[in-house]
Structure formats: structure tokens, C-alpha cells
Amino acid sequence: MSEFASRAITSNQTGIHADIPALVAKYWQHEFLKPVAEHSQAAFAQVAERLASFAGPLILDSCCGVGESTAELAQRYPEALVVGIDKSAHRLGKHVFHKKASAHCGEYILVRADLNDFWRLAAAANWQPKRHFLLYPNPWPKKKHLGRRWHGAPVFPAFVQLGGTIELRSNWPIYVGEFALALACVGINAEVRQLPEQVEPITPFERKYQASGQPLWQLTANLAGANLVAPENIEYLAQHAAELAESGEGVLKSAARNFALGDARGA
Ligand SMILES: C[S@@+](CC[C@H](N)C(=O)[O-])C[C@H]1O[C@@H](n2cnc3c(N)ncnc32)[C@H](O)[C@@H]1O
Fold it and tell me: Is the torsion defined by CA of 191, 197, 202, 206 positive or negative?
């Protein structure tokens, strides 16, 4: 095995988790009241202060790890303020500032915060990121850990309310399919595709997965106008999810095709 080798995800789930529509509906209707950690509040205040005097667009790079993608995004969008957020001081401490920086590099900040707090604070402050990247979040592949995946967590409504154009990447197609289903529950159609094999990696995890030949998946969506769909549509999605969970087939095709409520139901 090379030093980059990485095993594909194994899980006791063969398809998407059927509980997603019920979870999304529950969390959408109940405020997430967990107290905010002090360090998250401090990180939020730091970014808020910078934003107050910044005239350009805001871009979030959530779960940024060592912040390689954050620097890359600042290069790609020099007019923006790019904020990388991660809970791991260890990972953030490994950031290499000089690597991607150039004369054309925009501004970026890396902060340590728990996104369960940071997204809620940012949504409450009505931040409106133009783009929001979520690159290779922890998959939590055990079936019983659905609640730890972002789309199965109580903070999901805050993530959605932040809005913007989102880009999620993962090496686990089920994660991406589930995310598309969760977005369908709030009326958002997502586009799902496989990343080209030779795509230039922008994070260490992407590089590692690519080097071991794993297919990588990308979901993009615009979150404008998101809102919980009617109860009968949640029911429809739950039923559909249950069928998909059992068949375990075509997770991504279904995500792209069938989660679009309007098309599927002739609405
Ligand atoms: C699989 S790593 C991916 C890191 C980076 N995006 C990459 O692709 O190299 C997932 C990252 O999510 C971060 N993370 C997990 N839960 C988090 C949370 N609740 N708040 C902030 N960061 C979190 C972890 O610390 C870790 O750095």
C-alpha cells in the first residue's frame, strides 16, 4: 500500500437511511437549544468583526481541516472573504500559509469552532454566504450514527437557512444521496455528479481518496427559498426513501431524478 492508500467506506447501510425525511421535519420545527461553546462564540465574534468592515461576498469552507481548500478558494475568489471553520486545533495548526498564497490570493481566515454552534450563530445573525463548501465531512457510516451526519443532525436547519450555493463532496455516495434527500425535504433540488477522475485535488482527503482510486461525488445546490415541504410531501419522500433503502440501488440516480417532488408527483 502506498502512503496515500485509503480504503473505501464500508457500512451496514446499503442504501439511504429511511428516517431522513422525519428527522429533517422534526428538526425544522424545533429550535436546537444546545448551549453554544465559548470558543465557538469567540470564533464567531472574530469573523463578525472582520465582516463588519468587509464589502465583498462571504464564502464558508466548513470542516476545512488543515485549511488547504480555504486557501485555494481564496485564490479562486479573490473578491471574497473566505472563512475556514474546523473544530480541530490540531488540523488547523497544520495549515501552511505560504503554499497557495500568491499576489492574486484573496483574504481568508481560519477559525476553530464547533459547526453545531457556528452555523446557528451565523444564521441568527443573518449572514448570507454566497457559497458554502462542505468538503469530505466525516461520513459516520454506521447506520445508528445517522444523527451525526450533518443532514441528520439538529443543526441542519441552520445550515440550510444560511443559504447560498452549496458544494458538498464525499467519497461515500450514500452520504451524497442522503444529503440530496434531506434538501428535497426543504424543497431544494440538488445536482449530483461524479467528479472527473483527474480533478486537481483541493484538500488532503480528496488527494488521498483520489490516489487510492476511489470515485468521488459532488452535490451542488442553491438554497434560496428553502422551506419545509408540506406534510404529505414529507410522507411521500419517506415512503420513497424506505423503498430506496431496501433496494439499495441507484442511490445517486434516484437522488438526482426522484427527489424532485414536482417531477415525481406531477405537482
Ligand atoms: C474528513 S475531515 C475533512 C477535512 C478537509 N475538508 C479535507 O477534505 O481534507 C472532516 C473534518 O471535519 C471536522 N469536523 C467534524 N465535526 C466538526 C464540527 N462539529 N465542527 C467543526 N468541524 C468539524 C473535523 O475536525 C475534520 O477536520
Answer: positive
Helix (H) or strand (E) holding 110: strand 107-112
- What local confidence, expressed as pLDDT, does residue 10 receive? 84
- CATH number of the domain at 20-265, please? 3.40.50.150
- The single residue listed with the C-alpha cell 465582516 is 51
- Looking at residue 257, what is its pLDDT? 58
Q: Which three cell numbers stand for residue 253?
A: 440516480
Nearest atom in ligand 1 to the alpha carbon of residue 204 is 9
What sections of the chain are H helices per DSSP?
20-29, 38-52, 68-76, 89-92, 97-100, 115-124, 156-162, 173-184, 204-211, 231-247, 251-257, 261-265
What's the whole-number mean pLDDT along residues 11-18? 85
pTM greater than 0.70: yes
On whether the CB atoms of residues 59 and 80 are closer than 8 A, the answer is yes
| Cβ atoms < 10 Å from Cβ of 18 | 19
Pocket test for ligand 1, best of 86, 111, 169, 214 (most atoms within 8 A of CB): 86
Task: Give the mean model confidence (pLDDT) for residues 106-121.
Answer: 97
- Letter for the amino acid at 74? A
Q: What is the pLDDT of residue 212?
A: 94
- Which residue of 9, 63, 218 sits with most ligand 1 atoms within 8 Å of its CB, as the best mutation to test the pocket? 63
And the C-alpha cell for 98?
505560504
Whether residue 231 is predicted with pLDDT greater than 90 in this model: the reply is: yes
Asked if the model's pLDDT at residue 256 lies above 60, the reply is no
